[in-house]
Amino acid sequence: MESQWDDPEFRTFDAPQEWSWTTDGPVRYVPVTREGLPLGFLWVALTSDAAGFVPAATSGGAGMNASVAWVARLRSAKAAGDDPLAALRRWAGEAEDALCGSVPAGAESEISGLAGLSELAGRS
């Protein structure tokens, strides 16, 4: 019989793999919108295996929820064997999703780094 003083049992489980969420180099990005309003920017590093989502400052809770949904999508893309750039392009031009919004086709741009992208998103 276990007592309240027994050591707790911790179990390790595997979390989905993900790319790094930061980079010091330039990034390629696409705008993400929902119902015509900006949710933020999906980005990938050009010089390393990194990818992420920067919510627009004006998007409030919708942008934060989109961020969580995009992290799940990026993990799924990595598990499927995509590289970050393929993941960035995977959802371009697809129908709008209730959480993730949509990425317009052909909307890729580059910027010098995440600081610039955060400024573009109104987060600096």
Your description of this structure?
A hairpin with a 5-residue loop joins strand 2 and strand 3. The protein has one domain (27-121). The protein starts with 26 loop residues before the first strand and ends with a helix. The chain has a four-stranded antiparallel sheet with strand order 3-2-1-4. With 124 residues, the protein is α+β, with helices and mostly antiparallel strands. It has helices at 60-79, 84-90, 114-120, and strands spanning 27-34, 37-45, 51-55, 109-111. Helix content is 27%, strand content 20%. It is globular. The mean pLDDT is 89. The chain has three helices and four strands.
Distance from first to last alpha carbon: 56 Å
Number of domains: 1
Q: What's the main sheet like?
A: 4 strands, antiparallel
Order of helices and strands: EEEHHEH
Tell me how many strands there are: 4
The helical percent reads: 25-40%
Mean pLDDT: 89
| Beta-strand residue fraction | 15-25%
- Structural class by sheet pairing and helices: alpha+beta
Counting H and I runs of at least 4 residues, what is the number of helices? 3
Q: Oligomeric state of the chains?
A: single chain
Low-confidence stretches: none
- Overall, the morphology is globular
Spatial strand arrangement across the major sheet: 3-2-1-4
* Alpha carbon gyration radius: 17 Å
